[in-house]
């Protein structure tokens, strides 16, 4: 069953099983619908760095935080660079980047916090959002994994930082892999496929299928991340995987590849309510 579900509001999908199981947690992924942005950013663009009118992006971000029961001042994000940098939110980071891209947490693709009332957000238009939650320690996080971040092992990196910082065992961590470009639409060249083969070793045949011509492959980036998270010690039963393809579903999502780069961004979000 698809883990990301639309309820009454068209501008977001909820990670249904997590929100039901842990009522103080919110986690989900925004869509492109129901927002203020126009033209190629229509309409729920959450990215400030893509050339959209800032007021529209801020209105969308405010709506996303508030409709989930959080203050807009809690909206916290990073400047994503397709790397494997992970940052733990300090008190002074709360609210970083919400209204200006150059005020975001610098050069970071993974965010983690043990604080309630921090609305962690990261941005996507095909790349893979990874969600993390350790209910015992009440530690949560989100990581941006395109192919570069994936082969740079940002997923296992999140598990490692949770272990080092809070002494959380991998088997106590839950993970979810959100809507992103599917293997149906994600053709890559052998430069990318070679890196994926290095990352997953003998499981490469599970994630790379022949493409439309020699030297091209259809890459399953969701399964690549799932394999790496499982190798990092997360129990298979604790990993949820979306089947929604951002490139197939441009009615619902922005797709960088399908729309030739000129498009908006969805937000992956996760936050814990106090109490
Ligand atoms: Zn597709």
TrEMBL record:
Belongs to the purine nucleoside phosphorylase YfiH/LACC1 family. Keywords: Hydrolase, Metal-binding, Transferase, Zinc. InterPro entries: Cu_polyphenol_OxRdtase (IPR003730), Cu_polyphenol_OxRdtase_sf (IPR038371), Cytotoxic_necrot_fac-like_cat (IPR011324). Purine nucleoside enzyme that catalyzes the phosphorolysis of adenosine and inosine nucleosides, yielding D-ribose 1-phosphate and the respective free bases, adenine and hypoxanthine. Also catalyzes the phosphorolysis of S-methyl-5'-thioadenosine into adenine and S-methyl-5-thio-alpha-D-ribose 1-phosphate. Also has adenosine deaminase activity. Pfam families: Cu-oxidase_4. It comes from the Bacteria. CDD domains: YfiH (cd16833). GO terms for molecular function: copper ion binding; hydrolase activity; S-methyl-5-thioadenosine phosphorylase activity. It catalyses: S-methyl-5'-thioadenosine + phosphate = 5-(methylsulfanyl)-alpha-D-ribose 1-phosphate + adenine; adenosine + phosphate = alpha-D-ribose 1-phosphate + adenine; inosine + phosphate = alpha-D-ribose 1-phosphate + hypoxanthine; adenosine + H2O + H(+) = inosine + NH4(+). The keyword Transferase applies. Its cofactor is Zn(2+). This is Purine nucleoside phosphorylase.
